[in-house]
Amino acid sequence: MKSLSIFFPCYNDKGTIGTLVLDAKRVAEKLTNDFEIIVIDDGSTDGSRDLLMDLKLKGEIPQFKLVLHEKNRGYGGALRSGFGAATKELVFYTDGDGQYDVSELPRLWNKLTDDVDIVNGYKIKRADPLHRVIVGWLYQHAMRWAFWMPIKDPDCDFRLIRRKVFDVVELKSDTGTITIELVKKIQNAGFRFAEVGVSHYFRIYGTSQFFNFKRVFLTLWRLAFLWVELMLFSTKYKK
């Protein structure tokens, strides 16, 4: 039976992260008896850290591990910590804000056949305000075209990946551009993708860290450099 690491990047997700950990335990127990659940607290200031430390101290979930960033390292930094902390054969992650449903992990699990290395979710319908839906649609299609993406929704952070991928692929981004870096480097390494539709829900706690002019501009700036690196100077990895 395959072993499983589940991790959540968390930044000011106090209203959702505890429930996600409990849901992850229930789901993991149905899939395997060898699993771990990891939360990367990326310098939260809303009480998320206290909640998570209390959960850890209670010891009611022995598979629960907590990684603490004393300073915020950005979304990419949190994901890199999560991939580094994961020890099991398969690694699943999704965001700590609860916009994806962990109970849909079996959809990915069932798609991970012997000839597939990563199963990527795609949003069946995006549950966001209209302006975010429009921007998200434009971003998704622009990234697929610019980076020749092998999947339809590279911005969907609901992924199940074989741990061996990270013996080959090294990630460097500290920001949200890590999702593009991740997918493209896995593609360049010759690993094989599958996709499955997943639900997407309105955010019930906190606010998005992305949708402001300064952050969008910086993201586009970083993506330009990433495109040069991955599309012009990238070399194929050897698995």
From TrEMBL:
Asked if the Swiss-Prot or TrEMBL record annotates the protein with the keyword Ion transport, the reply is no
Show the GO MF annotations.
undecaprenyl-phosphate 4-deoxy-4-formamido-L-arabinose transferase activity
- Domain named Glycosyltransferase 2-like: residues: 5-166
Question: A GO term (biological process) for this protein?
Answer: lipopolysaccharide biosynthetic process
Q: Which Gene3D superfamilies match?
A: Spore Coat Polysaccharide Biosynthesis Protein SpsA, Chain A
Transmembrane stretches, start-end: none
Annotated Gene Ontology cellular component terms: plasma membrane
UniProt keywords (A-Z) are: Cell membrane, Glycosyltransferase, Lipopolysaccharide biosynthesis, Membrane, Transferase, Transmembrane, Transmembrane helix
Q: What PANTHER family would the database entry show?
A: UNDECAPRENYL-PHOSPHATE 4-DEOXY-4-FORMAMIDO-L-ARABINOSE TRANSFERASE, UNDECAPRENYL-PHOSPHATE 4-DEOXY-4-FORMAMIDO-L-ARABINOSE TRANSFERASE-RELATED
- Name assigned to this protein: Glycosyl transferase family 2
Record organism: Candidatus Giovannonibacteria bacterium GW2011_GWC2_44_9
